[in-house]
């Protein structure tokens, strides 16, 4: 790779390291082309970019954004999943994929500028998605209103039953 191309890759990685809400560093050794294609497809559907990186260029980019601790994980075949919009998606998809394909190894991650261990990446994957959390929040806001409607309807039902009984007695 020529020097200008390397500089462009380092700049791109530097931008991604500083702008990503989360990222997951993986070792993909042992995955065949079909499995990598399947993984990339799943990540792309969730809006996650998966990039195979050269360790030296990733080290330079990590040093540029003052994340020297991350360079410990840049050894062997390295691929990084960048989550720009959703912080949980990269971890969730990669941990699920690693359960089915044991050769995919999760090395570490980055969440809001802080390096997290493999175990924390796995626990991050257990967090419900944004949509699930919003649905639960709306359901909890709806519950008191539904209860109030049922209570008010109960009073009306009672009144209707009393009026119905009075009507039957007079008939």
TrEMBL record:
<dbReference type="InterPro" id="IPR022973">
    <property type="entry name" value="Ribosomal_uL10_bac"/>
</dbReference>
<dbReference type="GO" id="GO:0070180">
    <property type="term" value="F:large ribosomal subunit rRNA binding"/>
</dbReference>
<keyword id="KW-0694">RNA-binding</keyword>
<dbReference type="InterPro" id="IPR043141">
    <property type="entry name" value="Ribosomal_uL10-like_sf"/>
</dbReference>
<dbReference type="GO" id="GO:0015934">
    <property type="term" value="C:large ribosomal subunit"/>
</dbReference>
<dbReference type="InterPro" id="IPR001790">
    <property type="entry name" value="Ribosomal_uL10"/>
</dbReference>
<dbReference type="GO" id="GO:0006412">
    <property type="term" value="P:translation"/>
</dbReference>
<keyword id="KW-0687">Ribonucleoprotein</keyword>
<keyword id="KW-0689">Ribosomal protein</keyword>
<dbReference type="InterPro" id="IPR047865">
    <property type="entry name" value="Ribosomal_uL10_bac_type"/>
</dbReference>
<protein>
    <recommendedName>
        <fullName>Large ribosomal subunit protein uL10</fullName>
    </recommendedName>
</protein>
<comment type="function">
    <text>Forms part of the ribosomal stalk, playing a central role in the interaction of the ribosome with GTP-bound translation factors.</text>
</comment>
<dbReference type="InterPro" id="IPR002363">
    <property type="entry name" value="Ribosomal_uL10_CS_bac"/>
</dbReference>
<comment type="subunit">
    <text>Part of the ribosomal stalk of the 50S ribosomal subunit. The N-terminus interacts with L11 and the large rRNA to form the base of the stalk. The C-terminus forms an elongated spine to which L12 dimers bind in a sequential fashion forming a multimeric L10(L12)X complex.</text>
</comment>
<comment type="similarity">
    <text>Belongs to the universal ribosomal protein uL10 family.</text>
</comment>
<dbReference type="Pfam" id="PF00466">
    <property type="entry name" value="Ribosomal_L10"/>
</dbReference>
<dbReference type="GO" id="GO:0003735">
    <property type="term" value="F:structural constituent of ribosome"/>
</dbReference>
<keyword id="KW-0699">rRNA-binding</keyword>
